[in-house]
Amino acid sequence: MSLSDHLFRHEHRETTAETRKLYARFEIAHTLIDFGAAAAFLVGSILFFFESWQTTATWLFTIGSVLFAMKPTLRLWREVRLYYMGRTARLAKRTD
Q1: Is 7 part of any domain?
Q2: Which of 27, 31, 38 shows the shortest CA–CA distance to 63?
Q3: What is the pLDDT of residues 31-52, one digit of tens each?
């Protein structure tokens, strides 16, 4: 089976206390990114009503977009880490 066959499988999150901890940390980071992106877009939207603040608003939209782009990257990184944590655990069991 390839790496792609093992990604985004719920059982990888519950394998050990270490994988549960890693999953929780990534979920917290994902939530913080969501709040950051939402705040950037909200403030940017309000600032866009004032012509003198439109450049700042544009930058906030750009920052919000970057934060939204980080979300799937973070999820993929998490899944790859969980996959390799499980793979390492399986290899360790083979040596016992």
Answers
A1: no
A2: 38
A3: 999 999 999 999 999 999 999 9
